[in-house]
Design goal:
Elements (H helix, E strand, L loop, with lengths): L1 E6 L4 H11 L4 E4 L10 H13 L5 E6 L3 H7 L7 E3 L3 H9 L5 E5 L4 H13 L6 H16 L1
Parallel strand pairs: 1-2, 1-3, 3-5, 4-5
Length: 146
């Protein structure tokens, strides 16, 4: 499985730790940033989103100070379903009920907690049920109208 990962300056340190952890389990593509120097998070969210929709990667991980900005930016990319997750419950249901293909987390999370959230996201599967499919289809239909 190929995982794309990005951060802004607020998530850079956690991103580097997560890459070292994930590289033993997955093929990890780092799309930046590469320092704690201030950058604009949308630039990196859009890189990640582009790679998701062109199928260069299977799932995306985005990290900024709160996870909120990355989540907002990623959800502007047509075809990306990103959840801002603060818990393993968030990441489980993002996959199980929403079939999310990206997750955004806060760079302020402990490495231990971030690992648990990411692991739950990457190891959970979409629960293929009519109710979930119908809801996701409504989102896609609306997205296509805009």
């Amino acid at each position: 499985m190929k995982i794309g990962i990005v951060s802004d300056h607020g998530g850079y340190i956690l991103k580097k730790k997560l890459i070292l952890y994930l590289v033993d389990k997955y093929e990890v593509m780092d799309y930046g940033t590469n320092s704690e120097e201030s950058v604009d998070y949308p630039d990196f969210a859009f890189k990640l989103g582009s790679n998701l929709i062109n199928k260069s990667i299977d799932f995306g991980i985005a990290i900024c100070k709160t996870g909120i900005g990355m989540s907002i930016a990623l959800n502007k990319v047509h075809g990306v379903l990103c959840v801002k997750a603060d818990s393993t419950t968030d990441s489980l249901y993002a996959r199980k009920h929403n079939n999310a293909n990206a997750i955004a987390i806060s760079g302020a999370l402990s490495f231990r907690k971030a690992k648990k959230i990411i692991d739950k996201f990457l190891t959970s599967n979409f629960e293929i049920e009519e109710r979930h499919l119908k809801r996701i289809e409504k989102i896609k239909d609306y997205e296509n109208e805009c």
